[in-house]
Design a protein that fits this description.
homodimer, mainly alpha, Tetracycline Repressor, domain 2, 11 helices, 73% helix, elongated, DNA-binding
Chain lengths: 206, 206
Amino acid sequence: MPKKLFYQLDIDKRNRITDAGLIEFAQYSYNEASTNSIVKKASIGKGSLFKYFVNKEDLYFYILDYVIADLGKNLKEELPKLKGDIFEIILIYAEAEFNWYIENIDKYNLLKRAFSDDSSSIYKKTVERYKLTGDSFYYKILGYSETQALKWEKEKVLNVLKWVLEGFNAKFIKKADQYSNINDIKDCYLEELKKYIEILKEGLCE
Amino acid sequence: MPKKLFYQLDIDKRNRITDAGLIEFAQYSYNEASTNSIVKKASIGKGSLFKYFVNKEDLYFYILDYVIADLGKNLKEELPKLKGDIFEIILIYAEAEFNWYIENIDKYNLLKRAFSDDSSSIYKKTVERYKLTGDSFYYKILGYSETQALKWEKEKVLNVLKWVLEGFNAKFIKKADQYSNINDIKDCYLEELKKYIEILKEGLCE
DNA sequence: TCACCTAATGACCACATGGTCATTAGGTAG
DNA sequence: CTACCTAATGACCATGTGGTCATTAGGTGA
């Protein structure tokens, strides 16, 4: 975590540093991200950065903490809306996540990179640091669903839903550049996802 | 592609270079991989490497070409075995791929990295170079399946199958370290995958 | 033995990295 | 104005990078 000096800065400077770090770590892997670039982007001296943070890793986890807190806050706001069977829940959850993604692409890319590149030198420390959140949160949300008649083990059904959602998201994001209007994207996303969920619901329910 | 000089080398030296490059690029991203390490691992002089290859990128694509050719050869051998409906085909295909993976972990990791890290500076050139293979191959294999009554659009069903297979593989590989006996792993993989395919077959067929 | 050729080499280059530290700038108290 | 303090700074350091090139080693023919 940052030293006291960092919190004594005026808000503008602090935001400049946070934003610069976020953009850099979203665009490049931990090792490829450059503190020199961050310093330039934030318009501060190189020495200052290492007065505010003990080293690159410290800066990285400060940024990551911040992003995860932001996502958590956003998802908590959606919690009361989660009602219905797991298929409806999945839809509501996916829509919330997708909306967050559309408006926080840098944060989304940072998270994706942080928890998917398991060969990065920082990955081990990352999963260690956040082991209590992560997947468990996903299942907690699903815990909100009404109990319901499934043809199969609940764990397997959840996995199938999770993998389809992940695959669908990845595929959709890749082709999302085509759309220009942001509302078109949201509509199209939801409409297409609904079909997949419909297929699974019909197939996996009693 | 390598210069003529490379092909004039005796087989042992050539293999040392290929292996060293494979291991390095499997372990580290393109930018993080070090030509110095490769040179040391292969026990050749730094200058020699750049006599054989015009630059790092040239070496990288030589290795990648080699791995893709190897995988292609392996899968072609499995082609005659692909018979039945798409669910049976998926199982046979997944088993072949998994066996290849188990015995070619470095090659597998290299491929995974090459086609998943879409932020790497080399990624664009990579997909450009191999755009004719890739996903299309996957669907070609599924083309071997007997036509069969599906409740839904074939494309969506294939996507669901693909995503579940991908998700299952990723999950399985992560916990594969637990097993010591390689045959246990293979058995366990196939057994668990079968259950998922069974679920999907029952759910997605007429 | 000598001259010739080519393949192999590692010292070397310019550049970028994470991190340091002596110096400076700017505000405050007397 | 001076003396003091602290926060900000960028020149600097050791290390590592991809890539080069003058030198060397070793084989061949006369």
